[in-house]
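We modelled the chain as a single entity of 222 amino acids. Its sequence is:
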Amino acid sequence: MANENCTRSGCKDVFHAFLVKNAQFDTDLEIPRIDSESALPERLVSFSKAVMGSDYDQWVHFYEDDANFERLWNKPNKYLPILQKYKGVITPDFSLYRDMPLVMQQWNTYRNRAIGHWLQENGIPVIVNVRWGDERTYDLCCAGVPRKSTIAVGSHGCVKLVREREFFKQGLDYTVKKLRPQTILVYGTAPDAVFDEYRKAGIRIIQFDSDYMVAHRKAVGS
């Protein structure tokens, strides 16, 4: 793909085309496709903690501030040996805010999948994190994601307020209808009002407490 335009001497791969080597692409935007993964995590650790961690019997997630993991995009080869020590990776949760220009939301979705494909190429089990903004991104958020497999979503900060919960529910409903996942991993709370209909439909919902939930519970108990 982009490597074909980088054959002259001294050309630098500023677009990180190496991340999508051997990739298949989805939609007119050419979002890299991620292969289906059957393994499921039992425990999760954030990327910022994983970088300094030593408990590798976990999957790495990116449900934290973008500033904590932008370095993975900037220097992926630096962090590959670290990520290869862990059980697997949920693709980066680059932000898709509804007030972001759509092209930036498309770019962040592309980056999510490009890194996911590259990690799979390097032997790491990968589950796609699906993130959407408003209805403009509902189709985009499904691009490159395997059907009838496992997806991950982050609910932290998305279900407490009524307005935010409605956007979350609408996007999730579109995603489930299009991808028909067998399993949904939920980082954060998984309220019945949002997820019970999917449980009843036979979709396995696996919920993981967010770091905020864990810290809050410890603070209340102390």
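As a brief sanity check on the tokenised model: Residues 22-221 form one domain. Residues 148 and 180 are 5 Å apart (CA to CA).
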